[in-house]
Design goal:
Elements: H1 9-24, E1 31-37, H2 40-53, E2 60-66, E3 71-73, E4 78-80, H3 83-90, E5 98-99, H4 107-116, E6 120-124, H5 132-135, E7 142-146, H6 158-164, E8 169-176, E9 186-193, H7 200-224, H8 226-230, H9 258-267, E10 274-281, E11 287-300, E12 313-315, E13 318-323, E14 327-335, E15 341-343, H10 344-351, E16 355-358
Parallel strand pairs: 1-2, 1-6, 2-5, 6-7
Antiparallel strand pairs: 3-4, 7-8, 8-9, 10-11, 10-16, 11-14, 12-13, 13-14, 14-15
Length: about 350
């Protein structure tokens, strides 16, 4: 695996013109595409673009990659490249053409980008706001893969908020980027039926996979300008927002119906996860607060066992937590602080006769 030592933007500026020919070859007649993205789902899009660009029939070459700067990760807090940067390096992409600006409005970055002479820019979960000075650079515009059916779920967490709302259908949109948030004309979209048990990380992966195929199919029309003619303006009156998740939202409240909680567990899977506080009562009836992370759940509308209205029961392979509206949340997997994810049955066996209750 290539060692990642991000070069300065000054070096980008000096080397961009000479390296562009190495990345895609000179005199190929292919248009320059600059890709912007950061997490693993974006890396999968870049991987498909690099694969498609290698075809002799391809109308484009990936001329540069823009991603978030290296970040401290894992216990050692070592600076590591984004998933997109690492994928580019692993694929042998020129290091001096992997741009890692703190902000996309930095003049040194914008100058370096102009040197690459992009015909089109493509964004997929990049994580930075693009200023108008950026949008003015690519001659064919900037196109975004957005994992929702725009104008629904504009914002930072479209998949998570859609799952939280319990939607039966979502999709992915390919849209031009404008200054207003996720509100540019839509070039194409694809719908996807949502399984009631699918979690956010899996759905994100599926939608970006569909989005990358949609993008590659539409790139010829984007590069020849015909996509702008067929792109449909969004109906702002139908827009909904998908604000960024925060860790304080992760707590579960069992005075809500089980389906609401199940949808939240699915939506917040990955990050920040969902947490709950329960009461553990020992054989001497001494209570203690137990905090758990809820990993996997199901919904039940009935319970054959009887107990106190706040008592948490166990049946089959699930903890049964009483919720609002005579519904029950079945917890299949959970995690205690500092421990590995465990199955509900193993957790229940470890209680050894202690009683588990909802907090009053």
């Amino acid at each position: 695996m290539a060692r990642y030592s991000p070069p300065s933007l000054r070096r980008f500026f000096r080397c961009a013109a000479s390296s562009a020919s190495r990345a895609g070859g000179s005199g190929t007649g292919k248009k320059n595409l600059v890709f912007l993205g950061s997490p693993q789902v974006a890396a999968s899009v870049l991987d498909k673009l690099l694969g498609a660009s290698g075809s002799p029939e391809s109308a484009f070459k990936v001329a540069a990659v823009v991603t978030q700067p290296p970040a401290a990760k894992n216990r050692g807090r070592k600076l590591l490249p984004s998933a997109v940067a690492q994928l580019a390096l692993d694929r042998g992409f020129p290091e001096e053409l992997i741009f890692t600006p703190e902000r996309a409005r930095e003049e040194s970055f914008l100058s370096a980008l102009k040197e690459v002479e992009p015909d089109v820019c493509v964004t997929a979960a990049y994580g930075n706001i693009l200023p108008q000075k950026f949008l003015d650079i690519p001659s064919c515009g900037t196109v975004n893969i957005h994992p929702s059916l725009l104008p629904l779920y504009r914002g930072a967490a479209p998949v998570q908020r859609a799952l939280q709302d319990g939607v039966a259908e979502t999709g992915v949109s390919l849209a031009y980027t404008v200054r207003a948030l996720d509100s540019g004309p839509v070039i194409a979209c694809e719908r996807f039926s949502v399984d009631e048990c699918i979690k956010a990380p899996e759905l994100l992966s599926i939608l970006f996979d569909l989005g990358s195929k949609l993008l590659i199919n539409e790139l010829p029309s984007i590069l020849d300008g015909s996509a702008k003619e067929k792109a449909q303006p969004q109906d702002d009156s139908k827009a909904t927002l998908a604000p960024k998740l925060n860790s304080e939202e992760s707590w579960l409240s069992f005075d809500q119906e089980a389906k609401v909680l199940h949808n939240k567990v699915r939506a917040f899977a990955g990050w920040p996860g969902t947490r709950a506080k329960l009461q553990l009562v020992n054989q001497n009836s001494v209570p203690d607060v137990l905090e758990i992370k809820v990993i996997s759940t199901k919904v039940s509308t009935s319970c054959v066992k009887a107990g106190d209205e706040n008592e948490i029961l166990f049946s089959g392979s699930s903890l049964l937590i009483p919720c609002s509206g005579s519904t029950w949340l079945e917890v299949l997997e959970l995690q205690l602080p500092g421990k590995k994810v465990t199955k509900a049955q193993d957790f229940w066996n470890g209680l050894r006769g202690q009683k588990l209750m909802k907090l009053p």
